[in-house]
Design a protein that fits this description.
heterodimer, A: mainly alpha, B: two-stranded antiparallel ribbon, 21 helices
Chain lengths: 58, 383
């Protein structure tokens, strides 16, 4: 096995692990964003702000 | 006045030039008649004709009368747009503006297929090094497996500019040939029972706008902290996506998706062709690179499908993944998702795999850019 092949083997190992680490982080990021910024909450906030504007106008 | 002085281009024409003009015509034919990646293959094909006519003023020449160097426009474009990586990075802004990450929020676990299906990059890199290519060249050949033209161009222009022509042609050609390459590999690796597995689409779930705005910013920060070398690739992609999602730059978003993408693709294609001169292209290397590119796409498909089968070992009956979805972890979007959806319908007319396939395919778009960033980070350490 030539030194270049050994290096590519090492890069392949680190590279595949690295991609999975990145993608797992992005996966966790999506889960966190989805949990802390859910769609329902956003609508509720909008409705709330509309209500408060109406209250102020009244 | 002799014939050579009267028509110097004909006098200087070699059989290699004629072959390259034939290659250019073939690429134009594939683009027009077969609709294979026409936005790229047509300019590349035309450019190949342009640079293989002897004494073409499109390339830098030495004026025989004065001995002075006369700059050719394609060399100027190459130095300004490819050597500096400006053209592919501008394309990334356009691609970012085109990507909708909502399907990933609906099926986040499918993001991992975007990692598994990058296997072909690294195995092809190893195979190229076994064939005698040095580390930088092997990495540039392996990146064809990213199934992502701009990423291939960025990596190849940095590590092996001498191989840029064949690598770009292979990357874009195989992206167009995904409907031919993937199905036989998938059929070979899966049983009919596996191909019949149905999956939930999750398409009714609505995604918060704030989450979609924060996602590209957070991804850029995370990627930048872990691998700053990958930031040019990931950052430009995510910037394009932020322009799309922010909601206040709709005109810029549409311009990025249409005018910017069209103009830069046009320049990118014809500029890549400047490397397709006969002396650089008609070599055994070109055939080897084209063969290795095919190998990379097959191994990508293998990686994705086998990873899905592996995950199924731990999933309960009724909640298993259709392993065909794994093949969508490549970056060829939305081609790969459509292919898998069609394959699913062929096995069972009521099996709609489009939504999970698109989720995995979007994961592949991120995965290929991450893979490119990792290659750009790791190779200089070992070279």
């Amino acid at each position: 096995m030539t030194p270049t092949v050994e290096k590519t083997l090492l890069i392949a190992g680190i590279g595949m692990v690295g991609i999975f680490v990145f993608m797992t982080l992005f996966y966790l990021l999506i889960i966190a964003l989805d949990r802390f910024l859910p769609y329902q909450e956003e609508r509720a906030t909008e409705e709330l702000s509309e209500d408060s504007i109406t209250d102020e106008e009244e | 006045m002799g014939f050579e002085q009267l028509l110097p281009a004909i006098a200087g024409m070699t059989w290699q030039n004629l072959v390259m003009i034939g290659v250019g015509l073939l690429l134009i034919y594939l683009a027009i008649a077969k609709n294979y990646e026409p936005t790229l293959l047509l300019p590349i094909g035309f450019g190949a004709i342009l640079v293989n006519i002897p004494l073409s003023s499109a390339l830098t020449q030495i004026d025989p009368a004065t001995g002075q160097v006369v700059e050719g426009v394609l060399n100027v474009f190459f130095d300004a747009g490819i050597a500096t990586e400006i053209f592919p990075l501008l394309i990334f802004i356009a691609i970012g503006a085109m990507i909708d990450f909502s399907p990933l929020f609906r099926n986040p676990s499918l993001l991992l297929f975007g990692a598994a299906a990058q296997l072909g990059i690294f195995l092809t890199m190893m195979f190229a090094s076994l064939l005698g290519y040095d580390l930088r060249e092997a990495a540039s050949i392996g990146i064809i497996g990213a199934a992502d033209g701009p990423t291939s161009i960025v990596v190849a222009s940095r590590f092996a500019p001498n191989l840029l022509g064949p690598i770009s042609v292979a990357a874009y050609s195989y992206m167009a040939l995904v409907p031919i390459i993937q199905p036989p590999v998938i059929r070979l690796l899966t049983s009919r029972k596996e191909r019949l597995i149905r999956m939930s689409s999750g398409s009714d779930k609505k995604i918060s706008k704030k989450a979609l705005i924060l996602f590209p910013i957070a991804v850029t920060i995370v990627a930048g902290i872990i691998a700053p070398s990958s930031l040019a690739l990931i950052g430009f992609l995510m910037f394009g996506n932020l322009v799309r999602e922010c909601g206040v730059l709709n005109k810029l978003s549409l311009s990025a998706q249409n005018e910017l993408a069209s103009l830069v693709t046009l320049l990118l294609g014809i500029t890549i062709a400047s490397t397709m001169t006969a002396d650089r292209f008609i070599r055994v290397d070109t055939l080897i690179i084209i063969a290795l590119g095919l190998f990379a796409f097959i191994l990508d498909t293998f990686g994705g499908v086998i990873f899905a089968k592996f995950l199924n070992l731990f999933r309960k009956e009724g909640n298993k993944l259709n392993p065909m979805i794994g093949a969508c972890g490549i970056s060829a979007f939305p081609m790969s998702a459509r292919v898998i959806h069609q394959m699913g319908l062929k096995e069972d007319p009521f099996n709609y795999l489009l939504m999970p396939a698109i989720s995995a395919n979007v994961g592949g778009q991120i995965g290929s850019v991450v893979a490119g960033g990792i290659i750009l980070t790791l190779v200089p350490f070992f070279a």
